[in-house]
């Protein structure tokens, strides 16, 4: 079923307002959770600035969509095709503002997932070379699209116009970037879990929960991008339903990760404190029952523990019992608190 552009804009704006309502409810909760985690320094400034800019851009995007909807369907024109003609004008000030807001939100989200990859990989610059290149390509196609809107003719069919074709490249690059970063993050978490699996007691596999959250959030966003690509290639006006919906949905996905991981962390810390009687809040506690050296798969010694068993923090094991070379090989060189925040902070 092919939708008219005006119909797609109408449905998209209505769904956008519903998603924006959810976004507005989740925003203060997410900010409170981030503050409770005690993030400080440049990371805190970056996250707060990203949240603020994203919220402002999403709000402006929603307001502009409402105004455009009123102008298109509330006009006194007797032409039944006037709404379609109105939305065909891609270089109007309102349309340029709306597309700029969408680009800002998308670039901020893409930059955030690159930053998340950078943190989880122990602040390795080498690992983010390709993601950075894709991010630059993403920004290039985005600005190319916005600039080309000024040359668009109002009589052009919107979804078939040369200008609109650039959207496909933008979505394709964004999709590739998110696939790559999600793969790097998921693989890192999975590999770390394999190394630490032997030393975690049942029910404390926090990294497994982090992996699920990362994959769930990535699947939602990727599905929307696939929908945009498919509808754009088909020249279906329903593409505007997804595009209008994207800015608040991006915000909802971000806070979904924070809230899900925060819930899991709360249950985890409660269990840890009950078992250890220590409220220091480490990543996990490990029960050791044999007086032997424990080894990773490649023969690197992890720890020697007494027979009666001890409770230690995994982060402390990584920092004190691995030598520098072993840490580098396994990619476990996290700063204090980074491993604990593997899914929720960034």
Question: Can you describe this structure?
Answer:
There is one protein chain. With 346 residues, the protein is mainly alpha-helical. The chain is built from 10 helices and 2 strands, in the order ααααααααββαα. The chain has helices spanning 5-36, 41-73, 82-87, 93-120, 129-148, 162-196, 206-234, 239-276, 314-321, 324-330; strands spanning 293-295, 301-304. The chain has a two-stranded antiparallel sheet. It is elongated, with a radius of gyration of 24 Å. The two termini are 39 Å apart. The model is unreliable at 264-346 (pLDDT under 50).
Short descriptors:
elongated; two-stranded antiparallel ribbon; 68% helix; 10 helices; mainly alpha; 346 residues
Can I get a quick summary?
This protein is mainly alpha-helical and 346 residues long. It is 68% helix and 2% strand.
Give the overall form. Answer: elongated
Q: How many strand units?
A: 2
Strand content: under 5%
Average pLDDT figure: 74
Cα(first) to Cα(last) distance is 39 Å
Strand order, main sheet: write it out: 1-2
Number of helices: 10
Order of helices and strands: HHHHHHHHEEHH
Gyration radius, to the nearest Å? Answer: 24 Å
Uncertain stretches? 264-346
Secondary-structure content class:
mainly alpha
Estimate percent helicity: 55-70%
Biggest sheet architecture = 2 strands, antiparallel
């Amino acid at each position: 079923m092919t939708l008219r552009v005006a119909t797609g804009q109408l449905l998209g704006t209505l769904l956008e307002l519903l998603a924006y309502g959810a976004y507005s409810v989740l925003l203060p909760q997410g900010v409170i959770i981030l503050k409770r985690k005690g993030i400080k320094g440049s990371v805190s400034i970056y996250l707060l600035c990203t949240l603020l800019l994203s919220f402002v851009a999403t709000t402006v995007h929603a307001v502009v969509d409402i105004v455009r909807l009123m102008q298109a369907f509330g006009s006194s024109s007797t032409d039944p095709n006037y709404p379609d003609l109105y939305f065909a004008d891609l270089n109007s000030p309102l349309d340029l503002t709306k597309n700029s807001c969408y680009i800002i939100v998308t670039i901020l989200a893409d930059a955030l997932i690159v930053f998340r990859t950078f943190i989880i990989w122990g602040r390795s610059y080498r690992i983010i070379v390709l993601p950075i290149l894709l991010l630059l390509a993403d920004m290039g196609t985005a600005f190319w699209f916005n600039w080309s809107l000024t040359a668009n003719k109002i009589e052009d069919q919107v979804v078939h116009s040369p200008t609109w074709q650039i959207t496909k490249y933008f979505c394709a690059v964004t999709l590739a970037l998110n696939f790559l970063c999600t793969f790097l993050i998921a693989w890192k978490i999975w590999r770390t879990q394999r190394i630490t699996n032997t030393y975690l007691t049942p029910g404390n596999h926090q990294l497994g929960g982090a992996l699920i959250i990362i994959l769930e959030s990535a699947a939602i966003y990727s599905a929307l991008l696939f929908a945009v690509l498919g509808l754009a290639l088909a020249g279906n006006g329903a593409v505007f339903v997804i595009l209008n919906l994207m800015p608040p949905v991006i915000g909802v996905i971000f806070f979904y990760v924070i809230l899900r991981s925060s819930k899991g962390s709360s249950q985890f810390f409660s269990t840890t404190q009950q078992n250890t009687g220590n409220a220091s809040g480490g990543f996990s506690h490990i029960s050791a029952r044999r007086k032997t050296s424990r080894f990773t798969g490649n023969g690197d010694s992890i720890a020697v523990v007494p027979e009666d068993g001890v409770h230690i923090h995994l982060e402390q094991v990584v920092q004190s019992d691995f030598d520098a070379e072993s840490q580098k090989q396994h990619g476990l060189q996290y700063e204090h608190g980074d491993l604990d925040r593997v899914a929720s902070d960034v």
